[in-house]
Amino acid sequence: MTRVDVSELVRIRTHHPEAIAEAAARRARRPLLRPGGRLMIVAADHPARGALAVGNRRLAMANRADLLERLCLALSRPGVDGVLATADILDDLLLLGALEDRVVVGSMNRGGLAGAAFELDDRFTGHRAADVARLGFDAGKLLLRVDYEDARSADTLLSAARAVDAMAERRLPVFVEPFICHRRDGRLGTDLTAEAVTRSIAIASGLGGTSAYTWLKLPVTENPGDMARVMETSTLPAVLLGGEIGDDQEGTYEKWREALRLPTVQGLVVGRSLLYPVDGDVAAAVDTAVGLL
Predict the structure, then answer these.
(1) Of 10-19, 246-255, 258-267, which range is least confident?
(2) 20 to 30 A from 179, CA-CA: which of 87, 115, 146, 187?
(3) Is residue 266 within 8 Å of 235, Cβ to Cβ?
(4) CB neighbours of 235 closer than 8 A, spacing ≥ 6?
(5) What is the mean pLDDT of residues 215-236?
(6) How many Å apart are CA 179 and CA 192, to the nearest integer?
(7) pLDDT (average), residues 20-33
(8) 3-state helix, strand, coil in the chain (%, to 5)
(9) Residues ≥6 apart with Cβ < 8 Å to 221
(10) CB within 8 Å of 88: residues ≥ 6 apart
(11) How confident is the model at residue 1 (pLDDT cuts 50, 70, 90)?
(12) Residue 44 Cα distances to 12, 198, 200, 204, 291, angstroms
């Protein structure tokens, strides 16, 4: 695993902050999708929303050097196309030279902090479309959580639609990650029933003045057998989000494998389950996910 010298990163950030923009400008780029290829993206935008837990480890993602080392290892594995993260993490990865010939996806809205009373007021506090374009990144990603009983969802819908427009104006792909949500005992939960996921796809697909550059980032339904019918809701290209694998690792992989056979599904975006696998073997977890493609 690549060792990260935190003192060197701090030295550069302190004395040469312009080095980040310079690294972005000279970064070797590649197409989002190579001919006949599918996407394998590693996600690491959780910390900016205060979501640091992995399993029962509440602060697992809080050690930045450890997270960066895991990301560098994952990005070095054959078949991994790129990374989804917020500016702070992508800036570090640029300085580490880990983003050469990789797809870079900027995370756009992280204002709906995990567990906060305003969690559904999902402000766009991360990358703007202008930032993605300025830095030569390849795409953006936004989270779209809708609770029919929470009026703040209307503001999130409007902000998401304008972000889709801004990305399309620059001909930049944007991955929209939609969920229908409900609060139970004060906690926000996502509804993964076939009807809820179908509804979320329909809503997300219609955002903005054009869907030409819109991709969907979708969960596997609670009953994996429903995915074929659910994915008939849209012709937009989609990637599956990973989430936490839990105890049934093989069962999760089988769900992904089946869904990846559907015509609109173009790949996987997986985060904590690959970066913090139960057995600690990041390389093996990443290689297994790549093998599903």
Answers:
(1) 246-255
(2) 87
(3) no
(4) 264
(5) 97
(6) 8
(7) 97
(8) 40, 20, 40
(9) 192, 193, 194, 197, 227, 230
(10) 48
(11) low
(12) 22, 26, 23, 22, 21
SS3 of 152, please? helix
- Amino acid identity, residue 50? G
Terminal-to-terminal C-alpha distance of the chain: 24
Query: Which distant-in-sequence residues (6+ apart) come within 8 Å of 200 by Cβ?
Result: 144, 146, 178, 179, 180, 218
Q: Which residues contact 143 (CB under 8 A, 6 or more apart)?
A: 109, 110, 112, 122, 177, 179
CA 100/CA 96 separation, integer angstroms: 10
Placement of tokens 């996600």 in the chain: 43
Helix and strand counts by DSSP (H, E) for the chain: 11, 9
pTM here? Answer: 0.95
Rounded to an integer, the average pLDDT of 210-230 is: 97
Token pair in block for residue 119 = 């969690």
Radius of gyration of the chain (CA): 18
| β-bridge mates for residue 270, sequence order | 42
Q: Nearest Cα to 9, choosing from 64, 76, 73?
A: 64
Lowest mean pLDDT among 29-43, 81-95, 242-256: 242-256
Q: How far apart (Å, rounded) are the C-alpha atoms in residues 138 and 92?
A: 17
Q: How far is CA 144 from the centre of its chain?
A: 12
